[in-house]
Each structure stands twice: as structure tokens, then as C-alpha cells.
């Protein structure tokens, strides 16, 4: 592209001086047609690209007419087309110098001062809010610690008397069988026993939850053969499955390497998943317990052919005291803590736990444990 050349050496020197002394502000020199001849470093940095060989009208987001801006003699707020994600707005003035045009851009100083004052005030307010949040968080932590301590003490102290009631109800059932007492009396004793069992499960869950929440859970890591472990856990659940005429199926790989985890804690996790599957499955269905070895660990899964969990409830299924809307199939009770405890145990192993479910088709819970 051919440009007009400034013939006067005095004008050239003057322009060069303006360019070198205005590095902090936007400055370009263009000919009378608007073709850019020269620009300072600040201009190129602000626009985030080289603007030499462009026309001055091409670097603004709005259409401009040079003659109008030259004759106005005042500053105009214009927005530059920036090569970066952020558009830049500045105050521009246009000056005719010989057969060239100088275009200056600057941030309004008053706006800059106001912005700086707002920024200082905002930072001050953020600091105050941060202090208040830290204070509130400290208070909440203290209350949460007190809650966990209370739960732990209450659950521990209640287990003994409820355990005693359970034992006496069993003794009374044995006496009732010997004395051939009426069925209504035996039904009442069985109800006492089942309610005690439920209360003991709830208290144990509360104890586990309070220990985990307080950060005092300790893992006893040991080398375990996952296949043998799965078979053992499945055998513990066989009686419950037989009572509901549900088939327990175990899928294991031909060979699998030992892996380190707390066997008692992971047994608690899998027993919870299998028990839940039994609760929400109908008779003559199948629950499948599977093991898969991956490059970085193992995956246990428990899959049922039950009712499934609605999609909108999957996001909160692992929260404490949350229960799905689906009903169990034989009147079994739930504390609402089992899955929350199970997930925290898995997370303590640096693992992951998730669920896939379709209403009417069943659910599959997965547990990943790393090597």
C-alpha cells in the first residue's frame, strides 16, 4: 500500500518526539486517508496486534468519519477492536499535523481516579466480609464439633440399654416357645426385638458418622485379595437374600492382584450396598456383585433388578439422612446414613463412589479403590 510521506523534516522530528514521549498512551499517525503510517508500542499492546498498514477506521468497533472528528476539536469515547477477549474503551482526540493526522487515546483521569477509589472501597469491604466469614466458619466448626461429640456420646450411652432390651426379648421368646404361649404375645416380642435391632443399627451409624465427621476415622490398611474378599462378603449376605427368594450372583475375573485397603471398612461399604439392593428388590430377581481390575485400581459393583432411583434424586443420594422416594419391598427400615457413611469411607481410601440407575430397571452402585 502506498502512503503519503511527510516532507518537512521539522514535522517528522516533531512526530517522532510525540511517539517516543507518549509510550504510556495510545498514539498512531496516519495519512489524510486514514492509512496508518506509524504507531507506538502502547497502541499495539492495547489492540493486541500489529496495526501498521491498517486504516484508522478499521481499529474501532463503530464507524468513524475522520473529517467530523478533526473538526470537532474535542475528545470522543470510542472502543477499540482488540485482538484479546476484552474490548478497550478510551477517550480519543484527532489532530491534523501538516498532511498527516495524529490520533491520541487515553483513559480519562477522573474516571481512573473514581475507579481506583471504588476498587479500594471494594477491597476494604471484601476484607471485612472475609473476616466475618472466617469468624462464622470458626463458630460453625465449633458447633459442628459439639454436635459430633454429642452424637457420639448419646449413641454410645444408648447402645447398652437397648442391647439389654434385645437380649431380654430373646430370652422371653425362648420361654414363650417352651410354654406354648399365644401367637399374639410372640408377635409382640418379635416386634420388640426387630425395633431394638433397628435402633442398634441407627446408633452404630450415628457413632460411625460422628467419628468420620470429626476427622477421627483411622484406616487399618492391609493387603487383600479382592476376589476372595467379594466371595466372603457375598456369603454374609446370602441368608438375607434367601429370605426374600433373591439370587446373589458373583462375577469375578480369572485372576486379580492383591490391593491394600481397610477390609473391615470396605466390608461395611459393600454390606450396605448389598443390603440396600435387597431392600428395594422384589422376590425372584437377581443381585449381581462384580469385581473388575483397572490400570489404576479395582472397581466393585452391586447391581440389582429393583425399582431404580428417579434421575432427580441421584444428585443427593449420598447425603446424610437423605432417602430416595422409592419404597422398600418388605417393610425394611433405613437410617438414611448408610450411603453417606459408605461414601466417606471410600473417599478416605482416595477412591470414588457413584451410581447409575433407571426407574423400573434397577440400580448399580460402583466403588473404585486405587492401587
From TrEMBL:
<dbReference type="InterPro" id="IPR003594">
    <property type="entry name" value="HATPase_dom"/>
</dbReference>
<dbReference type="GO" id="GO:0005524">
    <property type="term" value="F:ATP binding"/>
</dbReference>
<feature type="coiled-coil region">
    <location>
        <begin position="119"/>
        <end position="146"/>
    </location>
</feature>
<keyword id="KW-0547">Nucleotide-binding</keyword>
<protein>
    <recommendedName>
        <fullName>histidine kinase</fullName>
        <ecNumber>2.7.13.3</ecNumber>
    </recommendedName>
</protein>
<dbReference type="InterPro" id="IPR005467">
    <property type="entry name" value="His_kinase_dom"/>
</dbReference>
<dbReference type="Pfam" id="PF02518">
    <property type="entry name" value="HATPase_c"/>
</dbReference>
<keyword id="KW-1003">Cell membrane</keyword>
<feature type="domain" description="Histidine kinase">
    <location>
        <begin position="153"/>
        <end position="371"/>
    </location>
</feature>
<dbReference type="InterPro" id="IPR036890">
    <property type="entry name" value="HATPase_C_sf"/>
</dbReference>
<keyword id="KW-0597">Phosphoprotein</keyword>
<dbReference type="GO" id="GO:0005886">
    <property type="term" value="C:plasma membrane"/>
</dbReference>
<keyword id="KW-0175">Coiled coil</keyword>
<dbReference type="Pfam" id="PF00512">
    <property type="entry name" value="HisKA"/>
</dbReference>
<keyword id="KW-0067">ATP-binding</keyword>
<keyword id="KW-0808">Transferase</keyword>
<dbReference type="InterPro" id="IPR036097">
    <property type="entry name" value="HisK_dim/P_sf"/>
</dbReference>
<dbReference type="InterPro" id="IPR050736">
    <property type="entry name" value="Sensor_HK_Regulatory"/>
</dbReference>
<keyword id="KW-0902">Two-component regulatory system</keyword>
<dbReference type="InterPro" id="IPR003661">
    <property type="entry name" value="HisK_dim/P_dom"/>
</dbReference>
<dbReference type="InterPro" id="IPR004358">
    <property type="entry name" value="Sig_transdc_His_kin-like_C"/>
</dbReference>
<keyword id="KW-0472">Membrane</keyword>
<dbReference type="GO" id="GO:0000155">
    <property type="term" value="F:phosphorelay sensor kinase activity"/>
</dbReference>
<keyword id="KW-0418">Kinase</keyword>
